[in-house]
Each structure stands twice: as C-alpha cells, then as structure tokens.
Amino acid sequence: MDSRTSERAARVPLPATADNALKIVIAGGFGVGKTTMVRSISEIRPLNTEETMTQAGLGIDETAGVRSKTTTTVAFDFGRISLNEQMVLYLFGAPGQERFWFLWDRLFAGTLGAVVLVDTRRLEDSWYAIDRLEHHGTPFIVARNNFGDPTHSLEQVRDALSLSDDIPLVDCDARDRESSKAVLIALVNHLYALSSVREMTR
Amino acid sequence: MTRRPVHSEDPDRLYTVTGGRSRADDSAFDLVTLIVSESEPSAGMQSEHVRILTLCRRPTAVVEVAAELGLPVGIVKILLADLHDTGRVSARHPRAAHSRADLPDPELLKQVLVGLQNL
Ligand SMILES: Nc1nc2c(ncn2[C@@H]2O[C@H](COP(=O)(O)OP(=O)(O)OP(=O)(O)O)[C@@H](O)[C@H]2O)c(=O)[nH]1
Ligand SMILES: [Mg+2]
Question: What is the average pLDDT across B84-113?
Fold first, then answer.
C-alpha cells in the first residue's frame, strides 16, 4: 500500500449539513488509470462495491427465490470530494467490462458528466466507452493519461478517435492530484458551457 | 480495515438478509442519495439495520453504505427502504437530477467549479 493511501483515515464522515451529492464517472478501457485517478483526488481511500444483474428472460421460481436466477456481478470503485458544506461529489471508476454499461441507467442516471481516459498505446480500448456515453446522452471530455512521453499530438489523437471539435481533449497524469483536479475542472467547464448555451436558447 | 470481497457473497445469505426479496423499488434511492439516521439501533434489530443506523449518524451515500456493509447496492436499497418506511432513516436525494440529454443548472455547475478550484 502506498503512503498516500494509508495516511487517509478509512472513514472520513461528511459534514452533518451535506445534502446534495453529485456524480461524475471516469470511464475508459482496461487498465487505463481510472482507479488511479479516483485515488489521486478522493478524500477517502477508494471503496468498492458491486451490483448484480439478473439475466432477463429467465423465469423466477417463487419457491426457489433468488437461487433460480442467473445473475452477473459488476464491481466498481468510487471516491468522493466534499465541495462545500452542502455539496459532495462522488467519482466512480467504471469497470472496463462491456456488461457494465447494461447497468448504466440503473446506477448512473443523473450523472453530471464523464471523463473518458485513453491510453494512446491502446486507443481502441476507449471506443466502446465513447460510443456508450454518446448513446446515453451523457456529456464527456477525453483525457489522455500519459504513460511515459506522448508520441502523438493531441490533434492526432482527436483524429484517431473521430472526436468532434466541440469535445475537449486534454493531457493528464492520473497519479497526480493536481493533474486529476485539472481534468475535473475541464469537464465542469465544458458542462457549464453546454448548459449556458442551453439557457440562452430557451 | 480489511475489505471482504463482496463477490464471494453467498446468495443464500443475501436471501436471508432481505427476507427473500430480491429487488426494491429502485427509483426510491439514487446511488448517491445521502442517508441520515433518525433513531438509534434498538434491541432485537437485524444486524444490517444496526450497522446502517450506526454508519448513517452522519450523512452517508447509498453506495458508501453498500461498500461498508460489503453487500450489493440492490440489497442495500431493500434494507434502506425498510428503515425509511418506518421513519428510522431520512433520505436527502440528489438535486442535480436531470433527464437524459438534459443538463444541470449553470448555477449548480458554478458551485461545483468553485469547490474543485478550492481543493
Ligand atoms: N506510468 C503510469 N502508470 C500509470 C498511470 N496511471 C495508472 N498507472 C498504472 O497503470 C496500472 C492500471 O491503473 P488502474 O488505475 O488500476 O487502471 P483502471 O483503469 O482502474 O483498470 P481496470 O479497473 O482494471 O480497468 C496501475 O499499475 C497504475 O499504477 C500513469 O499516468 N502513468
Ligand atoms: Mg480500476
């Protein structure tokens, strides 16, 4: 365990006044640094939990109860940031598995927005996340997590991802707190721009 | 604290915890609805209820309750619904909720921005 993590108390309670929690999701392919980013910025050591999905189309035997159903489990991790006395932001690391996205509506409806982390050595791993976020109408930005010196320009990355010009693309180091903070600020600035345009056109 | 891997949960145990029910009305609680205890645990209460009431003396999100109890989110929602129905906990629901492809209020986003910049 690294020292940063062990210094943090296992449980830091929220202020009694906390009354509005928000969600942001960190998505991307396997091993791209999602958990690392949550860990670098969370005020609690990241926790993890799971949700089970019941296979559709199978009859439920009343007498056998849950034992007769086929369930799949999807695990995800999360951290949190207290923004002020009332507001708290929860950051979720989306698992790389495709089946995770079947749980999106149940778990992540109402998410403010998402960060898609990409590793330029395996760009295609992030296509699925981008495609699903577009499908769900969740606004997002893309952050390139730099494992070593980047060998491509951000413009090349944008082309390779077929990312439209209005979606911000930034560089980051998910291990670094300031860098992860800058990524979240870039996302919220993007959301702010989108919602301001909407207000004006109302 | 060591975390028990939740995926090793025995389905029979989950069945017992919830009295055989498999899913609550999901719409009642969001993953980040903050739960607050309104009473102290009492004698004879089921152990999961005791743990929730102890944990939620300070506001605690549904997903944190699930992680701390080592139970799937869906099971925890059922346990919370029982406590909520009997007035033992209250729920502070997220206020940024917006429908698909809709966006939160710019004023709220500005507060998020300020909070992040002050970190
Ligand atoms: N060099 C370098 N290594 C990193 C960086 N970010 C993450 N890593 C390492 O990459 C590995 C995977 O990071 P995780 O944060 O576990 O990735 P993840 O996206 O959560 O992975 P899954 O949940 O398994 O999909 C870990 O060993 C990290 O220490 C980075 O910016 N630079
Ligand atoms: Mg991870």
Answer: 84
Does ligand 1 have an atom closer than 6 angstroms to the CB of A79?
no
Q: Do B34 and A41 touch (CB under 8 A)?
A: no
The boundaries of the domain holding residue A18 are 3-200
Look over chain A and give the mean of its residue pLDDT values, rounded to a whole number: 86
Residues B48-83: pLDDT tens digits? 999 999 999 999 999 999 999 999 999 999 999 999
d(Cα B92, Cα A86) in Å, to the nearest integer? 11
Measured CA to CA in angstroms, residue A93 lies from A19, A26, A46, A57, B45 at distances of 23, 5, 10, 29, 34
Dihedral pair phi/psi, residue A164, rounded to 5°: -70, 160
Q: Which atom of ligand 1 is nearest to the CA of A38?
A: 15
Q: What b/e readout covers A170-194, taking b as 16+ CB neighbours within 10 angstroms?
A: bebbbbebebbbbbbbbbbebbbeb
Architecture of domain B13-117: Orthogonal Bundle (1.10)
Residue A23 to residue B12, Cβ atoms within 8 A: no
A24 closest CA partner among A85, A88, A98, A118: A88
- In the chain, the amino acid numbered B7 is H
Beta-sheet pairing, A113-118 with A20-28:
parallel
Q: Compute how many other C-beta atoms are within 10 angstroms of the C-beta atom of residue B70.
A: 17
Q: Give residue A145 CA to ligand 1 midpoint distance, Å.
A: 9
Ligand 1 centre distance from Cα of residue A103 (Å): 23
Contacts of B37 in chain A (CB under 8 A): none
**Assigned token pair, B117:** 């910049």
